[in-house]
């Protein structure tokens, strides 16, 4: 029996490719409906069948409703793709793709596409993790054609789709060079007719994509606060006058509550200086510290308006764990703030 149904997914979503490729192997007839955030998952008929903000989702002509790309792919695929008696190995690689590959790929690639904000520390950690993952895959594929047995399975399809953003956007020729066996396997999977029908011809990365702050700002415009209608408030002086008049009319004498004493900034009379601390924080967080952040600090530091203090702990031997010194630093800053 040939399966027929509809897959709701964003266009070109790599996780949905798992299900669509599986359908190509089994011959299932799949219609595609584009998913629009805030619209599709706001439809009561959608929410009656699927969890909110979940893609892809599948609804079969027989009424079968499934969410999660892996579940849909296993349902639409063949017994061979599922691994047969080696289904446990296929499941192993599918979970490996989702837990060990995709999070790091997303951390590195998504900022380059303007999808998420860039964080240097997180990106460096993701790159380090991916180097370990790619080395493991390269060694594993040294003497085998596919991940499970000698024929393509859902394991290959899933790992292939998880690596696709990495190999097409940020891992250039120099980055791919240490992993010849992995690239050979990837090219083999990419050239399968069923994969080509869904993904198209794979174009490997030529130049590593970089984070573009302008592109990110365009995709994530800030809320226009000026459009918000201001809340009309009664002037404080007029309110006080009305209250005093009311007291006089009613002949009620009440003790006035003391006015709160407004704190005065002791540094208000000092010049601001030209050292932009917030700009330095951004450089420190997103750039190499020794090569970029420290030179930036000395270039922009203004000794006329700022000073540098060196502090030592009274009992450093009691600060064996990092969080202990962090707690002391946070406490000191809280006391320094007015």
Automatic annotation (TrEMBL):
GO terms for cellular component: cytoplasm; nucleus. Residues 217-264 are annotated as: Disordered. Homodimer. InterPro entries: EF-GSTs (IPR050802), EF1B_G_C (IPR001662), EF1B_G_C_sf (IPR036433), Glutathione-S-Trfase_C-like (IPR010987), Glutathione-S-Trfase_C_sf (IPR036282), Glutathione_S-Trfase_N (IPR004045), GST_C (IPR004046), Thioredoxin-like_sf (IPR036249). Residues 83-216 form the GST C-terminal domain. Conjugation of reduced glutathione to a wide number of exogenous and endogenous hydrophobic electrophiles. GO terms for molecular function: translation elongation factor activity. Gene3D superfamilies: 1.20.1050.10, Glutaredoxin, Translation elongation factor EF1B, gamma chain, conserved domain. Coiled coil: none annotated. This is Elongation factor 1-gamma.
């Amino acid at each position: 029996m040939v399966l027929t149904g509809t897959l709701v997914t964003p266009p070109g979503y790599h996780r949905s490719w798992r299900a669509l490729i599986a359908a190509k192997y089994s011959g299932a007839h799949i219609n595609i409906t584009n998913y629009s955030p805030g619209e599709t998952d706001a439809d009561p008929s959608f929410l009656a069948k699927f969890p909110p903000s979940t893609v892809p989702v599948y609804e079969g002509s027989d009424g079968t409703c499934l969410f999660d790309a892996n579940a849909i792919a296993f349902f639409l695929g063949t017994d061979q793709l599922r691994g047969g008696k080696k289904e446990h190995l296929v499941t192993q690689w599918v979970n490996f793709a989702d837990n060990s590959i995709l999070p790091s790929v997303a951390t590195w690639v998504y900022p380059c596409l303007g999808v998420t904000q860039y964080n240097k520390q997180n990106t460096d950690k993701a790159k380090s993790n991916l180097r370990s993952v790619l080395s493991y895959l390269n060694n594993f594929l040294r003497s085998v054609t596919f991940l499970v047995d000698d024929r393509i399975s859902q394991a290959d399809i899933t790992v292939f789709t998880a690596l696709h953003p990495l190999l097409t956007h940020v891992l250039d020729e120099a980055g791919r060079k240490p992993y010849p066996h992995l690239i050979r396997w990837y090219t083999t999977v990419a050239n399968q007719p069923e994969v080509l029908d869904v993904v198209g011809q794979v174009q490997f990365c030529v130049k590593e994509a970089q984070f573009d702050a302008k592109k990110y700002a365009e995709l994530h415009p800030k809320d226009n606060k000026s459009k918000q209608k201001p809340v009309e408030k009664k002037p404080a002086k007029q309110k006080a006058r009305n209250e005093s008049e009311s007291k006089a009319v009613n002949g009620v004498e009440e003790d006035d509550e003391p006015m709160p004493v407004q704190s005065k900034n002791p540094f208000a009379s000092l010049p601001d200086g030209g050292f932009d601390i917030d700009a330095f924080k951004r450089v420190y967080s997103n750039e190499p510290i020794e090569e970029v952040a420290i030179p930036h600090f000395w270039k922009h530091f203004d000794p006329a308006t700022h000073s540098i203090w060196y502090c030592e702990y009274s009992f450093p031997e009691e600060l064996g764990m990092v969080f202990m010194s962090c707690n002391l630093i946070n406490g000191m800053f809280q006391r320094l703030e007015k």
